[in-house]
Amino acid sequence: MLIKVSSHIEETGACIKIKDALFPEPFASGLQYSPPARGTWNIVHIGMLVPESHQIHVCAANCLRGVVLTAEEMGAGDRFSTIAVGEHNVLQGNMEELIIDGVSDIIKKLPGKPRSILIYTACIHHFMGCDIEMIYSNLRNKYPDIDFLECYMDPIMRKSGLTPEQKTKRQIYSALKPKKINRKSINIIGSNIKTDESSELIDTIYKNRYELKDITLCKTYDEYLNMAESFLNIIYFKSALPAGEFLKDKLGQEYLYLPLCYGFDEIADNLNRLNEYLGLPKEDYKKQRLVAKDALKDARELIKNAEISIDYTAVPRPCGLARLLVENGFNVNRIYVDTFIEDDRCDFNWLVKNKPEIKIYATMHAKMCVLDRKCPENSLAIGQKAAYFTENKNFVNIVEGGGMYGFDGIVKLAGLMKEAFIKPKDIKENIQIKGLGCECLL
To answer: GO molecular function: any one (predicted)?
Structure first.
C-alpha cells in the first residue's frame, strides 16, 4: 500500500468510534505495522522463567536475530544457543539430524549440564513435515538426566490454533511430573510478572496458611518441579487457560480462572469463588471497595478532565479499565487495541451505550506509522503503545497488568496514574526495553 505522506492522512480503517466498532474484530486484517514499543514479553522471556534451563532456537539465521538480541538484553546469553538452518539442510532433507547433532554439540560445549533444555523449532519444520517426535525421543534416550521441553517459534500459526504465547505458557510447565498432592499448596500459573503480595488474592492464600508456588518465585529447578504437588492452579490471564487444561490432564490439578478485571463486583465475585473453593466464608470486601473508590477519587481530583488513552499491552481488558475510569469521572477518549478478548464484551457494550464517542485505534494497521495522532499536552497514557502513538511523556509504564490484582491493584494503578501525570518520562528510553519486569541489562 502506497501512501502520500506529505498530506493529511485520513484515519479511516485505522480508527473507529466504539459505537460503530464490531466486537471482537473492529479492523480488517491487512498490511501491518509494528510500533517500537517492546515492553511485552516474548517467547524468550517466558522460557527464561524456568530456572536452571537452557534455550536452543532452531531456524534460519535471519529469524534468529530478534531472539538473540532478547537474550543478550536480558544478560542471559549464557543460557541461550542457536542452530542455524541453511538452504542445504532444506535441500538435503537432514533437518532431524541437524537438530539432534546440533543439540548434542551444544550440550558437550556447555560448562555444565542444564537441568532442562527448551528447544524452539520454527515455521520451516512445519513446512517440511519434520519428525519432531523422533527428535525428542532420540534426545531423551541419549540424555536421560535432562528434561527436554518442546517449544515453538512459529509466527505462521498466530491466527490458527494456539498462539505462540499460549503455547509457551503451556510448555514451560511440561517438565512437571506427577507427585503426591499437597492440599495446602496452591500455584499461580500463566503470569509472567510476580503478583503483588498486598493483593487480596495473595493475602487470602497466605493468611489461611496455604503455600504459594509460582514460576516467577522459583529460584531453583527443584522448586519449579515442586509446583507439581499443588492441588490447585489459579489463572488470571486467559492466555494461560491451555496451560491449566494441560496440567489438569497431566497432573490432576484443578484450576480456577479468576480473570484480572476492574469492575468492583467482578473482583469480589472472583475472590469469593476462591473463598468458596477453599471452604472459607464469603466476604463483602466493603472496606477494600471504599479504599479503591477513594484512591480513584484522589486521582480524579488531580487529573481532572484530562484526556486518557489506554492500550491492550498495559491491561488485558482495556474496555474494563476504561469503564472503571469513566464510571469514576475520568475522561477516557482513546483505546488502542487490534482485537478484543471475549472477557471484555460486557464492558465493551457498556461503553457503546455510555461513552459512544471513545475512539478505538488499531496498533498494527499500516496507517498508524504516519497518522497525525498527538494528544494535548495535558493528557495521560496508560501503556507503552498508548504513549508512543500519542507522543505522551506522561504515561503509566506497565505491561500485562504490572502484577497488580484486585482492589489493591486498583489502588496502586490510581497511584501510578497520579505519578505519571506529574512526572513525565522519556518515551524512547522506556519503551525500547524488551520484557518490562524481567531482568534487563539496558
So the answer is: oxidoreductase activity
